[in-house]
């Protein structure tokens, strides 16, 4: 599937992490290709964080794995570039990636990372393993000092180091895992649903810690992946919405939540439930149907089956990302003006 | 609390204690609640607050250690299987995980036929039964012709949850207890499920009890909200009062810990 | 369901196990149809006849004779008569006689015998030789001469009237009989056992009986275990306590000792194969009960069971339709293991002499028992016990392999 990508020339800053037209696929047991990540391009700059929103099965976790260059069957790299600090790591051997990139340049926190803590090891032993895997020459004392100082700066009590994972609460485990993943001072942190399995209070603590990491320069930039939009709105600067392996909208957090352009993004934002006054008077939007099966991707727009504003051309013409002013982009056959017109017509009819 | 309508379900001092001695766990601690006919009530609590245990006691699946439940003014007595079956004609449930709610060896027809039989429709002619099942499916925007001979797990999560609602449409209970009905559903399908539940409630005059950890959801759907912590109700009242003007500390903390969009989310209070 | 079956038949281990098992079943079923000898018929007078083809010598004399001139016939004849000890003795004599050692090759029969023929002289004095040894060499020489001669033998029969021996026929050294023309030939691939029974036929029958015993024992044990486990796990409360009490009782008592006591008290006359099987079944249900109960306990709080309750289904309905299908795969595996263990338990009982009656049917354990009592292993008569061991091993191995294959299908976490 060809896509016309335009370079956006806004800043001359070299982005910390740049992805160009990345495509990766899963190969099933029956030799079928599932293009879970389809020509995705993104840029993350120092001091900024990017949020990736989307529902289960849209490919955001696969995108996170692919960004690391860490491919294991059945996940295979197909095409595209991943450039970190100017280095193109796409197509690199996974072992090289592990040694030189993971932990030191990019840190990745997978979903339910807190469940991956070895229950028979103390936290400090876990940290020793992590640090010594990258730098075998560090002594235990150096590791202990490093651990203690990191934990202190991040607001975690030092007693945690001597505890076993079972002795810690879910929120504390997750924060520990985050602290350990940034202990080697990576530039970019990729967090995949870091707070989904936690209760609201622990979630708040985790979010606060992540913001802290950015504000205190512990990490230079962050990619935050979740299906909960209110979190992204409060944490990240930019939001990218993914659907069926493709990016359908790119905008700043405010624009994405209050003024979405793509119909799917619009539907998603309309289904946000937050306990604020006025919620009872809003009508939540619902999008009927299910995402397309990526074993046989539809030939036209992936969202055409479920789109309220679908036109006959949508199902046959493949659509590229449309760039508009302000660094925004969205994937639709209609121009911005046409789209806004459709929306205002609908709003007028609903008001009557 | 609105008291013009009659009280459908009432509990008084409902308690459930598990274990004894050092391992004693008071899951539900002397809970009093009142449910008005046709109302929508939410019980909000985090995991471990005892809301699931309370739900199971209301449903009659667990016996309370102490306290009484009054159904339609009379004390509930479900000691025999017959009385249980009679009670269950009036109260039904929807559970959280649609994948676990179905017996994976039963086809969809069997699931729906079961509901018809429970309502005493065993002797109806085949055609009438099919008509009833088709009507139930179309209420939840599913096509019955496409579903016959399929197993529930061949559907998506949202479709399975809608099938649950179709079951309720056939069973027509007086009270529906929905235990986290949308927590495992995609955000896009959530509104559909909630709308269908409300529509069903309007059509058959059902009372709905939502059990949830999502206080935003509770605010959206219900008239009355109960906040539960460690087995006790710490606050109760109209949704507007509880959510917008919370009095209890726990409620305040719960609301402030949820990320907001239109209001500022204050991270410093953690 | 169809998908599960497809997966099951894709599992390598299951296929291999099933093939071995089916092969054994086929042999057990087809063999008696081809070979119709009764398995416990004593056909041999004498113990432990080695495996081989047994040709009736009397009949072969009377069969049509064919003359074959085979090159190595003489050598074969001599080689079978000349043992290693004899050859070494010949070499010793030759060396003592003065022939250099390196010229003597005891493996080359022809040259050895040539040397002997040329040099042996019974009158020669060899130093250090005892009289017995001298006589030995004389006898050896005579028998060698007999072998080396190319004369045939005469067959004489007693004249019914005169009582004198009359020659009725002769057999030359080049006479051969066609085995298929000899009326009485018996192939005994595994020889005979101590009683004189054909081991192979006995073995096939014993396998069949043991499999049946295993099946009966396994069925009884699984049925008991399944019922008790379901009731204990699902109903809980007092029922659970009572069932668990009995289960614990049976766990603590060593089942094998219990089996021995029961077997002993039943007495020889009543111990048929079926009785033993049922007794084994009644003492080995413990593990299955425990396992089923554990599975049911974990299923009990599932949503679909709660919903089934809310739909007003009775306890029996819920157990049969909502619980049982979910543990079915587990029960199938338990059943296979019970069958396998039933076979082994019976073998163990029989080796001790407490198995089924020895006069009616053979079982694998009984064959082992006889081999042990009559000291087959000490005597080196491997055919009496080795095939039995291999059979027991194959049966249990194939069943366990099937079980592992099924386990991998039903529990994806175990797949390799």
Overview of this structure, please?
The complex is a heterotrimer of chains A (352), B (270) and C (416). Chain A has helices at residues 60-67, 94-100, 123-134, 140-153, 170-181, 200-215, 229-235, 253-258, 263-269, 336-351, and strands spanning 17-27, 33-44, 49-53, 75-84, 87-88, 106-109, 188-192, 221-226, 238-243, 246-252, 321-323, 329-331. Chain A is α/β, with parallel strands linked by helices. Chain A has a domain at 17-120 and 164-258: P-loop containing nucleotide triphosphate hydrolases (Rossmann fold). In chain A, the strands form 2 sheets. Chain A has an 8-stranded mixed beta sheet with strand order 6-7-8-3-9-10-12-11, sandwiched between helices. In chain A, strands 2-1-4-5 form a 4-stranded antiparallel beta sheet. The longest helix of chain B has 18 residues, at 187-204. With 270 residues, chain B is an alpha/beta fold. A 6-stranded mixed beta sheet of chain B has the order 6-7-8-3-9-10, sandwiched between helices. A 4-stranded antiparallel beta sheet of chain B has the order 2-1-4-5, covered by helices on one side. Chain B has helices at residues 51-59, 81-87, 108-118, 126-139, 144-147, 157-171, 187-204, 215-221, 239-244, 249-256, and strands at 7-18, 25-36, 40-44, 66-71, 74-75, 91-94, 175-179, 207-212, 224-229, 232-238. Chain B has a single domain (7-269), classed as P-loop containing nucleotide triphosphate hydrolases (Rossmann fold). In chain B, helix 3 (108-118) packs parallel to helix 6 and helix 4 crosses helix 6. Chain B is built from 10 helices and 10 strands. The radius of gyration of chain B is 19 Å and the shape is globular. By secondary structure, chain C is mostly helical. Chain C has 2 domains: 2-45 and 194-414, MetI-like (MetI-like fold, Orthogonal Bundle), CATH 1.10.3720.10; 73-148, no CATH class. Chain C has 17 helices and 6 strands. In chain C, a hairpin with a 6-residue loop joins strand 3 and strand 4 (165-171). The longest helix of chain C has 37 residues, at 199-235. The mean pLDDT of chain C is 85. The chains are: A alpha/beta (352), B alpha/beta (270), C mainly alpha (416).
Task: Set down the secondary structure blueprint.
The complex is a heterotrimer of chains A (352), B (270) and C (416).
Chain A (H helix, E strand, L loop, with lengths): L16 E11 L5 E12 L4 E5 L6 H8 L7 E10 L2 E2 L5 H7 L5 E4 L13 H12 L5 H14 L16 H12 L6 E5 L7 H16 L5 E6 L2 H7 L2 E6 L2 E7 H6 L4 H7 L51 E3 L5 E3 L4 H16 L1
Parallel strand pairs in A: 3-8, 3-9, 6-7, 7-8
Antiparallel strand pairs in A: 1-2, 1-4, 4-5, 9-10, 10-12, 11-12
Helix pairs in contact in A: 3-4, 5-6
Chain B lengths: L6 E12 L6 E12 L3 E5 L6 H9 L6 E6 L2 E2 L5 H7 L3 E4 L13 H11 L7 H14 L4 H4 L9 H15 L3 E5 L7 H18 L2 E6 L2 H7 L2 E6 L2 E7 H6 L4 H8 L14
Parallel strand pairs in B: 3-8, 3-9, 6-7, 7-8
Antiparallel strand pairs in B: 1-2, 1-4, 4-5, 9-10
Chain C lengths: L1 H9 L1 H23 L17 E4 L1 H6 L2 E3 L5 H9 L2 H14 L11 H11 L11 H18 L4 E6 L6 E7 L3 E3 L7 E4 L10 H37 L1 H16 L2 H12 L6 H11 L2 H14 L3 H8 L4 H37 L12 H10 L2 H4 L6 H25 L6
Antiparallel strand pairs in C: 1-6, 2-5, 3-4
Helix pairs in contact in C: 2-8, 2-17, 5-6, 8-9, 8-11, 8-12, 8-14, 8-15, 9-12, 10-11, 12-14, 13-14, 14-15, 14-17, 15-17
């Amino acid at each position: 599937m060809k896509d016309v990508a335009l370079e956006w020339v806004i800043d001359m800053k070299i982005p910390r992490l740049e992805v160009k037209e990345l495509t990766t696929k899963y190969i099933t047991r029956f030799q079928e290709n599932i293009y879970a990540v389809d020509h995705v391009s993104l840029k993350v700059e120092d001091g900024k964080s990017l949020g990736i929103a989307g529902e289960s099965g849209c490919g955001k976790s696969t995108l996170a794995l692919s960004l690391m260059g860490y491919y294991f069957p059945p996940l295979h790299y197909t095409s595209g570039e991943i450039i970190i600090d100017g280095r193109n790591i796409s197509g690199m051997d996974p072992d090289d990636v592990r040694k030189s990139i993971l932990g030191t340049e990019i840190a990745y926190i997978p979903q339910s990372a807190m469940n991956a803590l070895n229950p028979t090891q103390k936290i400090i032993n876990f940290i020793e393993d992590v640090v010594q895997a990258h730098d075998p020459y560090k002594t235990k004392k150096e590791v202990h000092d490093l651990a203690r100082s990191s934990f202190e700066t991040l607001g975690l009590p030092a007693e945690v180091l001597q505890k076993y994972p079972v002795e810690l609460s879910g929120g504390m485990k997750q924060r520990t895992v985050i602290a350990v993943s940034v202990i080697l001072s990576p530039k970019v942190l990729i967090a995949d649903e870091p707070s989904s399995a936690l209760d609201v209070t622990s979630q708040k603590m985790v979010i606060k810690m992540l913001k802290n990491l950015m504000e205190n320069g512990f990490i230079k930039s962050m990619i935050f992946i979740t299906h909960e939009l209110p979190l992204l709105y409060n944490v990240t600067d930019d939001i990218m919405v993914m659907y069926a392996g493709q990016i359908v909208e790119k905008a700043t957090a405010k624009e994405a939540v209050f003024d979405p352009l793509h119909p799917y993004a619009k539907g998603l934002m309309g289904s946000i439930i937050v306990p604020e006054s006025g919620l009872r008077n809003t009508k939540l939007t619902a999008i009927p149907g299910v995402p397309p099966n990526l074993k046989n991707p539809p030939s036209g727009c992936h969202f055409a089956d479920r789109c309220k504003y679908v036109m006959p051309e949508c199902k046959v013409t493949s659509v590229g990302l449309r760039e508009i002013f302000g660094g925004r982009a969205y994937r639709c056959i209609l121009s911005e003006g046409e789209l806004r017109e459709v929306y205002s017509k609908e709003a007028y009819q609903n008001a009557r | 609390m609105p008291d013009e309508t009659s009280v459908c379900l009432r509990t008084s001092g409902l308690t459930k204690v598990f274990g004894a001695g050092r391992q004693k766990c008071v899951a539900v601690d002397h809970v009093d609640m009142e449910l008005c006919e046709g109302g929508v009530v939410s019980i909000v609590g985090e995991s471990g607050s005892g809301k699931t245990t309370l739900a199971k006691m209301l449903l009659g699946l667990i016996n309370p250690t102490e306290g009484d439940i009054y159904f339609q003014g009379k004390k509930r007595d479900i000691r025999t299987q017959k009385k249980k079956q009679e009670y269950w004609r009036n109260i039904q449930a929807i559970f959280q995980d649609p994948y676990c709610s179905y017996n994976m060896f039963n086809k969809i027809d069997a699931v729906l036929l079961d509901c018809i039989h429970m309502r005493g429709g065993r002797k109806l002619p085949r055609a009438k039964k099919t008509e009833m099942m088709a009507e139930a499916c179309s209420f939840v925007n599913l096509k019955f012709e496409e579903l016959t001979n399929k197993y529930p797990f061949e559907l998506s999560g949202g479709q399975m949850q809608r099938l649950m609602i179709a079951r309720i449409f056939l069973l027509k209970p007086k009270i529906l207890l929905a235990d986290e009905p949308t927590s495992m559903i995609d955000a896009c399908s959530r509104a559909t499920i909630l709308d269908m539940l409300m529509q069903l409630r309007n059509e058959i005059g059902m009372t709905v009890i939502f059990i949830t950890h999502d206080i935003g959801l509770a605010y959206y759907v219900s008239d009355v909200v109960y906040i539960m912590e460690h087995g006790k109700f710490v606050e109760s009242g109209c949704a507007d009062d509880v959510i917008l003007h919370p009095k209890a500390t726990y409620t305040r903390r719960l609301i402030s810990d949820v990320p907001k969009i239109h209001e500022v989310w204050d991270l410093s209070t953690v | 369901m169809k998908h599960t079956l497809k997966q099951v038949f894709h599992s390598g281990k299951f296929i291999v196990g099933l093939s071995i098992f089916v092969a054994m079943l086929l042999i057990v079923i087809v063999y008696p149809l081809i070979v119709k000898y009764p398995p416990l018929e004593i056909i041999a007078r004498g113990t432990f006849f080695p495996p081989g083809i047994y040709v009736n010598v009397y009949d072969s004399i009377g069969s049509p004779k064919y003359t074959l001139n085979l090159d190595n016939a003489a050598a074969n004849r001599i080689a079978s008569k000349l043992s290693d000890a004899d050859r070494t003795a010949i070499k010793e004599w030759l060396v003592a006689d003065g022939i250099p050692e390196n010229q003597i090759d005891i493996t080359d029969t022809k040259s050895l015998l040539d040397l002997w023929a040329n040099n042996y002289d019974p009158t020669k004095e060899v130093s250090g030789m005892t009289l017995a040894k001298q006589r030995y060499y004389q006898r050896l020489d005579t028998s060698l001469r007999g072998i080396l001669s190319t004369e045939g033998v005469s067959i004489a029969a007693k004249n019914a009237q005169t009582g004198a021996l009359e020659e009725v026929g002769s057999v030359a050294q080049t006479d051969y009989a066609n085995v298929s023309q000899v009326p009485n030939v018996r192939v005994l691939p595994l020889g005979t056992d101590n009683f004189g029974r054909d081991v192979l036929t006995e073995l096939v029958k014993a396998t069949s009986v043991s499999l049946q015993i295993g099946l009966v024992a396994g069925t009884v044990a699984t049925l008991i275990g399944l019922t008790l486990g379901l009731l204990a796990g699902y109903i809980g409360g007092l029922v659970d306590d009572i069932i668990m009490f009995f289960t614990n009782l049976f766990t603590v008592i060593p089942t094998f000792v219990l089996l021995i006591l029961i077997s002993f008290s039943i007495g020889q006359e009543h111990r048929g194969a079926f009785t033993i099987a049922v007794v084994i079944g009644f003492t080995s249900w413990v593990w299955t009960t425990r396992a089923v109960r554990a599975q049911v306990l974990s299923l009990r709080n599932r949503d679909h069971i709660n919903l089934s309750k809310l739909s007003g289904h009775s306890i029996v309905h819920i157990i049969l339709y909502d619980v049982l299908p979910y543990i079915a795969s587990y029960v199938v595996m338990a059943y296979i293991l019970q069958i396998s263990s039933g076979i082994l338990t019976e073998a163990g009982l029989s080796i001790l002499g407490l198995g089924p009656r020895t006069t009616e049917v053979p079982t694998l354990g009984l064959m082992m028992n006889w081999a042990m009592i009559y000291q087959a292993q000490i005597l080196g008569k491997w055919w009496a016990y080795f095939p039995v061991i291999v059979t027991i091993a194959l049966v249990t191995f194939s069943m366990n392999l099937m079980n592992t294959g099924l386990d991998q299908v039903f529990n994806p976490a175990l797949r390799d």
